[in-house]
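[retry 2/3] Adaptor related protein complex 5 subunit zeta 1: previous attempt timed out, resubmitting with same input.
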Amino acid sequence: MYSHGSESLIKQAREIQEPELQKFYSRLVKLLQGKELSHETVDSLQRLHLILSATKYTRRLPSELRTRLLSLLSSPVEQLQVLSSAVLREMPPLSAEELNYIQENVGQLNSQTAALLLSKAGTRADLSSVCAQLLRGLDNRPSEAPAHSLMHTLPVLNTILTHSPECLTEDHITLLSKRLVDWLRYASIIQGGGASSGRFFTGPRSRQPVPIAELDGTVSGDFFTVLCVGQGFTEDQWMNVYSFSMLHHWLLTYHSVSNGNSTIETDDRSEVDGSVVSMVSATSSSSRLLPPKERLREKAFQYCQRLIEQSDRKAQKKTDTELQKACLVEAVCILDCVCVEDASLVFRTFPFIKALFGRLSADLSFSRVLLPIAQFYLNHGEMAAVDCESVWKLVFGQFPAELFSDPFLAHELLRFLRLNLEKFQLGVPQYTHFFPNLLKFLAWDSPAVVDDFVDLLPSLVTPATAVELLHTLLDLPCLSATLILQLRSTCLPISEPGGRGLLSLDAFRNPSFRGLFLFMLRGEAGSGDTIDRLSTLHDLLAEAADWPRVVQCAQTIPVLLHIYFNTVVTVADEKLLAHLILVMLERSSILLNIPTYIKEIHRVFSCHLLRMCKLHPSLVVDQSHELLEFAGIPGNVYSKEELYTHVVWVLGEYLSVSCDSRCSVSLITSCFETLEAVLFEITSSGTPPGTVCPAPRVITTLMSALAKLASRSHDLIPRVSLFLSKLRTVTRGGSVAWCSDEEDLVAIVTRGEELWSLLKAPSVAQSVLTPSPHITTPQWHRDTNVAMPLQLRALTSLTHPQ
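[retry 2/3] Adaptor related protein complex 5 subunit zeta 1: success.
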């Protein structure tokens, strides 16, 4: 893992002796006492960090060295700050005096000191103490607390809020809310950094205050926001930016903080001492009478309202355009949060949100902004009695159809759906209606979004969408290939006659096949479960079978099909399940020619066909004609071994009067004759060209099914016995054409002899091959009238002593 040189250094650090280590400590203390710290000091600090971190044992440093390291935290050299903080974090917990030393110098707080404080706060009490000290620093007047210190304080508080919000008391919330109000709403509107007036003869006395500007270059006539620009920024303007960056998180979290006793005495100095209020946006004095939380919500509302107005300006730089988009996302999220906390703001906010949606909806480059707007409509549209139809057509219609290849949008949209899944299921019927569009994300980049669809797919399965959704999942590799062709058709030239090109791309551009591809690209459900010319589409896309994106898509379908069937059995009635059985039998022959994909789909179909019939045995009688038609094709023995075996087993197991009173003798006889003909054909002739011998499991399943049917209709027993005796006679001559393995042949013959022996006693055969329910699902361990429960309890007490 490490290079030879690195391993040598680590070994030296671990094996250093205590006398040598003490000498090294003394030399380092002398180096740190110097007025100027040299490169040797930096090297020594790096070596000290290696010595402390290379061993699992905690080493204790001399108190003088610890004091020197603490003083380095406030060094103007950032490298020394980093090294001292890293060394102190490798030490045992700081003493109370050392923590007090750091906290008393909170005016010199930087990111390294903050990291050290958080790492050493081992308990909630320690963390609360750190919070109190940091907030006390926020409450200082501007002259008492340098701005660079406050800039580091807010990120530290945000970190604490993320990991342990309960450490903040009600007084902490009040204080921070007041300070955020000041920074957000009353920052200076004059550029910082001593901006020049622009004249030729300028000097310190001739420099005039220059107001901040908007992104389009005009002079700002309102309060400062993150979208204001200038040649320099003042300290309170920087705090405005920092405050806005943590505002959403703060609003989301502070209501969950437990109420505590007042621990900090603060005077209300909000909006005093140098606050600059523009005449354009000055608010009424009534807002000053609101409690701190409500005032913060009001100021956050005004701030976001101004950001929305500023976003309509034409930015002079491309980077500023991206900044506008990012700020719009944050502003809409903050407004949504504010309206969740105070429903009275919904009616004031909706006009701005509605106008913003109308302005941005025609430009899909603002998709990342439109998703928070959709969240706002979802949360508050019903209360405001607003029609959300256009929003959902955009989110579920245009976004997946035109931006399916955008990984960022795919992640954000699917996350949006997952977070609001219950709301969509209850109040947005368009959600399931647009499932063909949503599946385009899965078809395009299956590995990246399959986890999302594992959560989303059950919500898309309804009685109305079940059949079409099954067809769509099976055709998802075709959709993947079609999306690739759609993109290629826009960037590749039309191939010349006689030239080399993709045949599938030519077919995509061919008007005679356009309908097939348009069905694959449909955006909404309801236009039909599938298409008649599906085999033609598979032929056209044959060359896409080995495209990486198509192969990846095909690999995810079996997992999703398991989820689909697990869900559909909970929402579908027997009529729908019967239809799904027909779809499985039909589609087992109509799949894109990817051998591993076809094999996996057959395995999934087999598993869930068995489960459906076990839950509803009457399905076998309902679909007996189609099941017998499938089982009566000898070619299915070779091409669909897994599915064919399960179909035969289901027919033999559930075609019984005990499962369905409609099961007649004629139906049992018809099924028997069909299976008998197939078994005779595959055991009396060789395998077709290009195929292998049928699996022993297929033959033994056919034999068992015939024996079960004969046990229910005794007139059929002689026919089964005759076949089984012939089978034993034929195999005595040695190898046979339909079984190449001698061990498999022995197993088949053994099964035949067992069945033949059972059928000699029809009453016994019926009880063994078609047992009654109380035999197949015994409850002896629960029956108090028998000795089994007592024996089990005695064995349990012996094997599991208390």
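[retry 2/3] Adaptor related protein complex 5 subunit zeta 1: The chain has 40 helices and no strands.
[retry 2/3] clearing retry counter.
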